[in-house]
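tokens incoming
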């Protein structure tokens, strides 16, 4: 059965030192690279997303001077800036598809993004006959959550590799993992995957 790895938003602005740093982001970047070193061959497709917001405007209310860190955020991941690049600790050699999302709008799920060629994640998974997807990256309580829920809605069996995700806040990250489990995702550590 064909399997995909979805790597969500492992970008400089979401790791230590970034505009919207998530504690443990660097560790996730390194751990995903180590996981890929051993397991890239297990996957038919490996899709990595980047938040890619417009420099102009507030991206549909996503950027705010006084953010609530739930629905509004400080400026982050502006297209073409260092903050929007993959964290250099993430080895992207094995990535088969790169997706950009959030141009002018909030877009938490990688299923809202497109490759340079215009492909959606859903279309890539369907074309590759993917039935199972493992989800890793940042942030557990926002973009990982939304991407995994959309993967379930797309009809694939989802696993969250729980040692390869990092969240903005502990409470909302715990809730997100519970919500994903209730929605049908399997929560498993990468060593047991
Ligand atoms: C994200 C907050 C704002 C994420 C993106 O990647 O989870 N979080 N924008």
């Amino acid at each position: 059965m064909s399997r995909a790895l979805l790597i969500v938003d492992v970008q400089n602005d979401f790791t230590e030192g970034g505009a919207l740093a998530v504690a443990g982001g660097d560790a996730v970047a390194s751990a995903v690279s180590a996981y890929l070193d051993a397991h890239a061959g297990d996957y038919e497709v490996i899709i990595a997303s980047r938040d890619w917001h417009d420099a102009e405007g507030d991206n549909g209310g996503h950027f705010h001077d006084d953010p609530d860190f739930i629905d509004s955020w400080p400026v982050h991941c502006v297209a073409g800036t260092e903050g929007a690049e993959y964290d250099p600790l993430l080895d992207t050699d094995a990535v088969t598809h790169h997706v950009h999302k959030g141009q002018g709008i909030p877009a938490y799920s990688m299923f809202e993004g497109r490759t340079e060629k215009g492909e959606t994640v859903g279309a890539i998974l369907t074309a590759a006959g993917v039935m199972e997807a493992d989800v890793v990256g940042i942030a557990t309580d926002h973009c990982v959550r939304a991407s995994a829920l959309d993967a379930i809605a797309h009809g694939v069996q989802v696993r969250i590799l729980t040692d390869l995700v990092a969240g903005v806040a502990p409470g909302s990250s715990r809730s997100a993992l519970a919500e994903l489990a209730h929605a049908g995702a399997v929560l498993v550590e990468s060593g047991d995957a």
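note: Residues 9, 14, 51, 73, 138-139, 142-143 surround pyrazine-2-carboxylic acid (CB under 6 Å).
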